[in-house]
Structures are given as structure tokens and as C-alpha cells.
Amino acid sequence: MAEIVNLRAKRKEAARKEARKKADENAAKHGLTKAERNLQKARADQARANLDGKKRE
């Protein structure tokens, strides 16, 4: 017997896949890689923590 397929779910899945592909292309063209963003965020967090540690009350 054939497998039942929900066409609405398939259309949504295809749309999500296309959006993800477009987002990846735009990120590669215009932005930072995920690793670079994570590194940048980690450095900012570390600098903020370092500065807060030296704060006088």
C-alpha cells in the first residue's frame, strides 16, 4: 500500500529548505560565518566580564 503524504507539510518543508538555502547564500556573501560570529560573541563576553571584574563600587 502507498504511503500517505501530507502535501501541505511537504510544501512547507520545501519552502523552509529554499529559505535556508537562500539564507546560507546571503550569509556567505554578506556576513560572517557561524564560527566567526561565535568567536566574536565570546570575545565580547570575555571583555565585558573582564571589565566588570575591575569595576569599583
From TrEMBL:
Q: Where do Basic and acidic residues bias regions lie? A: 15-57
A Pfam family of the record is DUF4169
Q: Which domain of life is it from?
A: Bacteria
InterPro entries, alphabetized: DUF4169 (IPR025227)
Q: Where is this region: Disordered?
A: 1-57
Per its record, how is this protein called by name?
A: DUF4169 domain-containing protein
